[in-house]
Amino acid sequence: MTDGKTREITLAEVKEHTTAEDCWVAVDGKVYDLSDYIDIHPGGNESIEAEAEATKAYDFVGHSAYANKMMDQYQIGILVEVKKEEPPSPEEPETFV
Ligand code: HEM
């Protein structure tokens, strides 16, 4: 489905958006742009700005089902890990019979 919510975003990219005007957070593997929500968030904006990877903070608050549902509209992508450069795989060892 191309709903614009499947863009792959790294945590490094999330961390480039940490102000109230431009505020992204990652919660439970998804990335949210809360720039338009931060001013009306009942938990205030400092809590949202606190950390890019905010799953623990979000869960700690014990957000309601209403809040969980509401998040969907702010989702902009999914969090991906940056893959380390894989070293080239060694040649298959020769087998002697
Ligand atoms: C990702 C999108 C988020 C949405 C849509 C959201 C939504 C809400 C809503 C609707 C409430 C009111 C209580 C409830 O219904 O649970 C709330 C409260 C709160 N939120 Fe969030 N929230 C989000 C992210 C966060 C994050 C990342 C943090 C912390 C780092 C946070 C911290 C808080 C706090 C501390 C309260 C409690 C306010 C109080 O009861 O005085 N929220 N949030």
Structural commentary:
The protein is α+β, with helices and mostly antiparallel strands and 97 residues long. The protein has one domain (8-79): Cytochrome b5-like heme/steroid binding domain (Flavocytochrome B2, Chain A, domain 1), CATH 3.10.120. Helices cover 25% and strands 18% of the residues. It is built from 4 helices and 4 strands; from the N terminus they run βαββαααβ. The chain has helices at 11-14, 44-49, 55-61, 65-71, and strands at residues 8-10, 24-27, 30-33, 75-80. A 4-stranded mixed beta sheet has the order 1-4-3-2. The structure holds protoporphyrin IX containing FE (HEM). Protoporphyrin IX containing FE (HEM) binds next to strand 2, helix 2, helix 3 and helix 4.
What is shown here, in short?
The chain is of the alpha+beta class and 97 residues long.
How many β-strands, per DSSP? 4
Main sheet record: 4 strands, mixed
Silhouette: elongated
CATH superfamily membership, which one? Cytochrome b5-like heme/steroid binding domain
| Strand content range | 15-25%
The CATH architecture can be given as Roll
Give the terminus-to-terminus CA distance. Answer: 52 Å
Mean pLDDT: 86
In the residues, how many domains can be counted? 1
Order of helices and strands: EHEEHHHE
**What would you report as the Rg, rounded to the nearest angstrom?**
19 Å
Question: Could you tell me which ligands this complex binds, including any ions or cofactors?
Answer: protoporphyrin IX containing FE
CATH top level label: Alpha Beta
Helix content: 10-25%
Q: Can you tell me the residue ranges where pLDDT is under 50 for at least 5 consecutive residues?
A: none
Individual helix count? 4
GO molecular function, one term: heme binding
InterPro entries: Cyt_B5-like_heme/steroid-bd (IPR001199), Cyt_B5-like_heme/steroid_sf (IPR036400), Cyt_B5_heme-BS (IPR018506), Cytochrome_b5 (IPR050668)
Organism: Ridgeia piscesae
Protein name: Cytochrome b5 heme-binding domain-containing protein
